[in-house]
What we know:
B: four-stranded antiparallel beta sheet; extended
Amino acid sequence: MKRTRFLLILDTILFVSLVLLLAPGFSGLAVHEWLGLAVIPLIVIHILYGWRWIAATLVRLGAKGAWRSRVNLLLNTLLFIAFAVTTFSGAMTSFIALPALGIAPGNFEGWRMLHNQWIYVLVLAALHIAMNWGWIAGAVRRHVLARPTARGDAAIDALAAERPEA
Amino acid sequence: MAQSIQRVALRTASILLAAGIVVAATYAMTPPYDQTREEAAEAEQAKKHSPTPGSEEALRRVIDEIQRGQPDYARMDERLSDTVRRLMPYTPPLLANLGPLQSVAYAGKGGGGVDFYRATYMNGSVRWAISMGKSGMIEGLGFGPISPPNPHRWIDSYAVFPMGAGAEEMAVRLAQLLALVAFGRLALRIRL
């Protein structure tokens, strides 16, 4: 359960960070750039915690009736690509964070056009949350509301055992 | 313990390698910005369309009014005049560094009948967008940088967002995210 609690906290931080990153007018450019760099290790940890699920899903990819796994893997792959491109293009159009680290990016306009495609991150992140809603609801009921349900606990246990959904 | 650390290190390296491959592929497909090519494409666009009658004159007038800090709200529709009123404390300082306006050139048409113009100032260029209503009122107005912007001006362009507008933007993004989650739950009927 420590793992679940840790993941819940991590994912909450990621969700709040995502909303802030999608609204640079509110956060200001400095917070937007530094937060964009700060979420990189958090995303890596998020993927590390899902590693066995990824490996198990890849093994089951060809199995009969595993369409949910295939859809989930495809969505996660697309989200990874969108996130990598958005983060890197953001770094390449950085005027505060990277110059402060002594790095002078180039080809601003080219990278800015890519960074402006953030809508893909929004859509794919939302679908990723939708795909994992059972786990989120189960974890919140258990660790926040202290009102666990059988279905919620089953969703938590399924991920903890790193079994992909059928 | 050592095996565990090794496993985590390998997996982390794999993730970063995958990200590196994605970024390298994107970099290979991203052409470097070429201002001459952009200007040529703009000129081609301008040849294909003609501006809405009166839009250039209206734009020149509103640029002058905004730079003087005295826009004529009577020539704008109600929604636009509310937006301009809200942003007026911040807009003239953004344009002040550009110096006096030297020329305005038509740069093509966008969706919804928007006319684009390239305004060249003493210290740089800005792309303006203007849309005119049937009654001759200005219904839409906006501007943005053309060439890679000066870092201070780029940073300032985010700093000028009033808190209310920024909070509204965040609320809209959060609503979009939650609406898409709800759509995903309903449309895909997915559970773990």
